[in-house]
Amino acid sequence: MENILLTPKNRPHCALGLGFFDSLHIGHRKIIDVLKSFALTNETASAIVTFSDNPKQNGKLVYTLEERVHLLKKCGIDYFLPLKFSQIQSWTPDKFLQYCMQRFDIKMVACGQDFRFGKDAVGDVNFLQQELEPLNVLCKVIPSLNLNGQKVSSTFIKEGLRRGDLKFINECLGESFKTFGKVIHGKGMGKLIAPTINMLYPVDKQQLPPAVYGTYTCVQGCWYKSITNFGTQPTFGGEKIVVETHILNFDKDIYGEYVEVRFEKKLREIIKFENLQKLKLQVLQDIKAWDNM
Question: What angle do CA 172, 120, 81 make, to 5 degrees?
């Protein structure tokens, strides 16, 4: 997938998706499926125009921009055009649409029924349809999807993340919630218990409740069962949020590499242990329990 801002092409023919796509939930994936289907049938590329920053100032994200790029690439999107919302929020709907059409030779546009754009969010799907029809550009509006009687949305998913409801979150996403990051050096305490890798958790990403989770970790394209301590390390006097993961049956040195951790199940709360030996016994129990699930 190419970032059109970094490697501009001569207006590639494309099916264009519009939206924030900050969680890539099942509704977003429906839009992506429509794009890819049209692109395949009509021999065009697929592209997404989105925002690189959060339209809701100080709001948390389900996935960061870097994570969204990674996920959209896995979905098979050809082009990705991130616009800085803070710089375009004063644009009229006409200016926004004209900008998109200058970058792409658009054959079809797809978006969710609630998509809004332009200054004061006055642009909507009706505006898109009225503007695109005379240009013979198809506009497909994707209805919102419901789960358990509730509309699936990024706001809804972030509420689930705050509750730690992984079953619900993963149903909304259509796959397991995950975080991506570079393996960094920790305090080295894991060597005394079970070898672990450490990652920083993005500051603008919505957090799960602190807990020990059953996870899967992708290293160099291969998935391994793992357990992850998400939160502080009270036994060692830690106060900062860490993502510390023990990968089962894995002993390679991967410092500096990028890995993906997929959250599947909460195993237990984070506990402050009296000593290292009691912590080690609990960690070994956690590993055995998750390995047998």
Answer: 55
**pLDDT at position 146:** 92
Q: Contact, 11 vs 104, CB < 8 A? A: yes
Whether 2-151 and 176-291 share one fold: the answer is no
pTM of the model: 0.89
Q: Can you give the residue ranges of every domain in the chain?
A: 2-151, 176-291
Q: Is the domain defined by 2-151 classed in CATH 3.40.50.620?
A: yes
**Mean pLDDT of all residues in the chain?**
89
Beta-sheet strand order (sheet of 197-199): 178-182, 258-268, 211-219, 222-231, 242-247, 197-199
Residue 232: Cβ within 10 Å count: 16
Contact (Cβ atoms closer than 8 angstroms) between residue 213 and residue 264:
yes
Superfamily of domain 176-291: Riboflavin kinase-like (2.40.30.30)
Q: Determine the Cα–Cα distance for residues 42 and 48; give it in Å rounded to an integer.
A: 17
